[in-house]
Write a structure and sequence with these properties.
Blueprint (H helix, E strand, L loop, with lengths): L4 H4 L3 E6 L6 E6 L1 H7 L8 H5 L3 H16 L4 E3 L3 E2 L5 E12 L5 E12 L1
Antiparallel strand pairs: 1-2, 1-6, 3-5, 4-5, 5-6
Length: 116
């Protein structure tokens, strides 16, 4: 079995680091990411999306903050139930991206989902 890049695109999202560094805006959401969330948050910030759920918001912000601070990114190995009960998230990889090679401007996120 060979994975192709096209096979992982539905499980990928990209967030833009906001100028203040205190929030992140969803730029691209793969189809599976949207399905597991029951929504497509493209254009929303983490604070806008999760403002009514502070524990989720803090977890998301912490993950993006850690990825922004790491030159190599991070992998979260915690197993999480998604909003869609059909899916379980096994691990998530956060890769920092930079337009100038110094300051992180985006984070690419890949989540490994399995049917629950």
């Amino acid at each position: 079995y060979h994975n192709r890049l096209g096979d992982v695109i539905p499980s990928v999202l990209v967030v833009d680091v906001q100028d203040s560094g205190q929030d992140y805006r969803y730029r691209h959401i793969g189809a599976l990411e949207a399905e597991t969330r029951f929504c497509d948050p493209t254009g929303l910030t983490v604070r806008q999306l999760y403002g009514s759920r502070p524990e989720v918001m803090e977890f998301a912000l912490e993950s993006y903050d850690l990825a922004t601070a790491s030159p190599w990114g991070i992998i979260d190995f915690s197993i999480e139930a998604s909003a869609n009960p059909r899916y379980l998230e096994l691990e998530t990889m956060f890769l920092p991206l930079s337009e100038d090679g110094a300051q992180v401007t985006q984070i690419l996120v890949y989540s490994n989902f399995v049917l629950h």
